[in-house]
């Protein structure tokens, strides 16, 4: 049993290294638009039962990028079924993950990933409708796209019901100072940080896309409702939370007003919204719709969401303060070390009063100051006595424990100007794409929201693993063998510590929107961004047609 335990630690270390290496290789292929090669590579990496959900999401997205929309939907439907069940809890699976590392547990996905499974499926159905010549088949595929839109709505409503809204956050900001102070002092588990600000509570862009798809299908009132939901979300806090331009709300209000015009709303209500919600530039854009009878819509899905990195945090005991102390270990190059330190300071460092006092008592003034670079877990005398009964305090005094947590390194999003050139009878457009969402920022903030849970789960996992290794060595009667086994166990457990860095990596980093009203006719659309040109080929726009170009820009 002793040999098996240590052997498993080493095998897990090798497995983690291979996973990281192969994921990077597949991603590099995707970033060069080698979609098929990337899919083949990721299929090999994500072959385990624990990665089933990731397998279907990654391959489904890559199949869409290859234009294989039917196969993409078959894969994403499998992902839908897995994500919708949330995987019935398997005790052995969870126990093994606790004893080894979290990647040995089933990947369950995030709220945002669940929403974008349906989002990509709806895009597939619209693309299949475009390929059909039969009106009945086109309608069938568009109806299927609307089914996915309604799934998005259900998922977002579930997420919204579980999290505070932007109105709740605004009310919290405006409450009396003493209530803010009480809330801050009482939130010790999150280190005094208001993690509610980082939660994925709704998705303005997904709501906007609901509106667009309803509009394409001729469901004008449903389109109005969805566009208006998106507009309210953008202006209430979504744009601010994810660092989006203020014009996002204006764009959604413009489309709300257009649906009101088509739906027969009173002119006075329409005029009031135009004056209160639209700038003069947007009012000019609205007027261009009145003189044209077709529209080109470009959705530029650009880049890739960032991948997570691992940060090593050292855990040691402070018996004088009856507490445990966590301190980051800088590894990798200068940028990596700097990013991990910044993340630790931003997310984990001691800022609440009890920890400041404990740091001061343990180390005087410098101890209080050094708390900005450490995280202290105060256990108190009763809990410390319980540690003593199982010899955990002895183990902590003899060795330093490694805890590994996930984090995101810094990233920048492409903000290069864009240009849509329609060709044919349409002059070059000066309308710039609007950055409507940042999935990269959503992913980062979801990680911020669960960071405290990650570090406490990692702490418990590593304490348990090290205690088991410690007990194995302590029960060996031969002193020399015990010391050797203890050393091997410490090295194996220290080296095999790992964090769950899995996420859906073939999702775009951001989505930019260009909408160009124009007369019906023949065109050859080209989209230019960052010295690259994408072409849609020759198309014909009919009267009252909305032509949707789902453009995947990996660069």
TrEMBL record:
Protein name (record):
Tetratricopeptide repeat protein
**Which Gene3D superfamilies does the UniProt record give?**
Tetratricopeptide repeat domain
What is the organism of origin for this protein? Answer: Marinomonas vulgaris
The UniProt entry, under InterPro entries, shows: TPR-like_helical_dom_sf
Q: Which domain of life is it from?
A: Bacteria
């Amino acid at each position: 049993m002793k040999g098996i335990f240590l052997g498993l630690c080493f095998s897990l270390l090798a497995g983690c290294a291979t996973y990281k290496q192969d994921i990077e290789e597949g991603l590099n292929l995707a970033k060069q638009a080698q979609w098929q090669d990337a899919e083949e590579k990721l299929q090999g990496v994500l072959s385990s039962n624990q990665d089933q959900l990731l397998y279907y999401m990654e391959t489904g997205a890559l199949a869409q990028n290859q234009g294989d929309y039917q196969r993409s939907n078959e894969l994403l439907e499998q992902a839908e079924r897995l994500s919708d069940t949330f995987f019935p809890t398997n005790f052995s699976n969870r126990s093994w993950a606790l004893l080894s590392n979290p990647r040995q547990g089933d990947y369950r996905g995030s709220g945002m990933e669940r929403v974008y499974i349906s989002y990509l499926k709806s895009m597939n159905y619209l693309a299949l409708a475009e390929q059909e010549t039969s009106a009945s088949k086109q309608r069938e595929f568009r109806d299927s796209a609307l089914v996915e839109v309604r799934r998005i709505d259900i998922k977002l409503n579930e997420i919204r019901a579980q999290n505070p809204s932007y109105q709740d956050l605004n009310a919290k900001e405006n409450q009396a100072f003493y209530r803010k102070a009480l809330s801050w002092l009482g939130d010790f588990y999150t280190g005094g940080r208001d993690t509610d600000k980082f939660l994925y509570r709704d998705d303005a862009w997904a709501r906007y896309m609901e509106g667009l798809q309803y509009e394409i299908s001729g469901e004008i009132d449903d389109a109005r409702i969805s566009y208006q939901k998106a507009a309210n979300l953008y202006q209430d806090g979504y744009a601010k939370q994810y660092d989006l331009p203020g014009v996002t709300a204006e764009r959604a209000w413009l489309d709300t007003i257009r649906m009101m015009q088509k739906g027969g709303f009173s002119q006075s209500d329409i005029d009031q919204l135009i004056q209160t919600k639209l700038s003069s530039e947007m009012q000019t854009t609205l007027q261009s719709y009145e003189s044209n009878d077709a529209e080109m819509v470009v959705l530029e899905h650009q880049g890739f969401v960032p991948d997570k990195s691992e940060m090593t945090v050292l855990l040691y005991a402070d018996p004088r303060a009856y507490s445990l102390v966590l301190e980051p270990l800088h590894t990798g190059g200068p940028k990596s070390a700097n990013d991990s330190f910044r993340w630790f300071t931003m997310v984990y460092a001691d800022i609440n009063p009890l920890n400041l006092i404990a740091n001061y008592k343990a180390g005087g003034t410098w101890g209080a100051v050094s708390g900005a670079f450490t995280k202290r877990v105060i256990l108190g005398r009763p809990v410390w006595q319980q540690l003593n009964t199982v010899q955990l305090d002895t183990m902590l005094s003899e060795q330093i424990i490694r805890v590994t947590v996930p984090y995101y390194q810094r990233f920048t999003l492409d903000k290069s100007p864009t240009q849509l050139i329609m060709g044919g009878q349409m002059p070059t457009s000066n309308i710039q794409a609007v950055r409507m969402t940042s999935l990269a920022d959503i992913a980062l903030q979801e990680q911020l929201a669960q960071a405290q849970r990650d570090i406490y789960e990692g702490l418990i996992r590593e304490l348990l693993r090290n205690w088991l290794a410690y007990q194995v060595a302590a029960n060996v009667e031969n002193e020399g063998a015990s010391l050797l086994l203890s050393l091997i166990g410490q090295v194996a457990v220290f080296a095999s510590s790992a964090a769950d860095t899995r996420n859906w990596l073939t999702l775009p980093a951001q989505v930019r929107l260009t909408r160009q009203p124009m007369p019906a006719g023949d065109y050859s659309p080209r989209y230019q961004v960052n010295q690259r040109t994408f072409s849609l080929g020759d198309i014909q726009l009919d009267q009252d047609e909305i032509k949707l170009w789902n453009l995947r820009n990996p660069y």
